[in-house]
Design goal:
- The protein is mainly alpha-helical and 206 residues long.
- It has four helices and four strands; from the N terminus they run H-H-E-E-H-E-E-H.
- The protein has helices spanning 2-34, 38-47, 64-118, 132-205; strands spanning 50-54, 57-61, 124-125, 128-129.
- Strand 3 (124-125) and strand 4 form a beta hairpin.
- The longest helix is centred in the C-terminal third of the chain and has 74 residues, at 132-205.
- It is rod-shaped, with a radius of gyration of 36 Å.
Length: 206
């Protein structure tokens, strides 16, 4: 009697162990489909496609909902890249306006400096009389500050352009990669359908 109980308990423990291992594998597979880069997820789906044999041939079948999920994630990635591009373009436009404003201010300052040089013997600023040397030092300090700001914003503008180019390049690569994988998936799906239809036709012929 004890031997029977022991055997039953051992059997139940084995079943529970296999069930737990199977559940862990399912959870791991699910994470693998939902994590990693888009390329890694595509590779996972391709590797995990269902393989079966029939009539001496080997067939592969990809679950359609896996492809649907991958498509949704890829589109989300593309939307995020498009948003980043839009945000970057807004920053570039704002900086371009600031640069235009600084150039205008610099031009106005230079005009004021030229006018001041003409009035050499009567230097006045904000109602205060100043020496020629002090006046020139002040004005050139203002110009130097504006030039420094102009150089800074030109640097920021060029940096934003580089970011935009990189983002566009990354977007083009993602779109090319998505098109290639979608083409491959569609070709495989069509191949499976043709093979399935051939098998049906053979069965009807029997």
């Amino acid at each position: 009697m004890n031997a029977i109980k022991h055997a039953v308990l051992l059997t139940l423990a084995s079943i529970l162990s296999f069930s737990a291992v199977g559940q862990v594998k399912i959870e791991k597979d699910k994470r693998s489909r939902n994590e990693g880069t888009i390329d890694e997820q595509f590779e996972y789906v391709i590797q995990k496609s269902y393989t079966y044999r029939g009539n001496g041939k080997v067939y592969k079948n990809v679950e359609r909902h896996w492809l649907t999920q991958l498509k949704a994630r890829t589109l989300d990635s593309l939307k995020a890249v498009h948003k980043d591009l839009t945000d970057t373009q807004a920053i570039v436009d704002a900086q371009a306006k600031e640069i235009t404003s600084l150039k205008s201010n610099l031009s106005n300052t230079q005009s004021s400096l030229d006018q001041t040089n003409i009035e050499k013997n009567n230097m006045a600023l904000f109602g205060m009389q100043m020496s020629k040397t002090n006046y020139n030092v002040l004005m050139w300090s203002i110009i130097a500050g504006l030039l420094a700001l102009l150089i800074f914003f030109i640097y920021k503008f060029n940096n934003s352009n580089a970011i935009t180019r990189d983002a566009r390049h990354a977007l083009a690569e993602i779109e090319e990669e998505f098109d290639e994988h979608r083409k491959t998936a569609l070709e495989r799906e069509q191949k499976v359908r043709r093979q399935l239809q051939d098998e049906i036709n053979k069965q009807k012929g029997v």
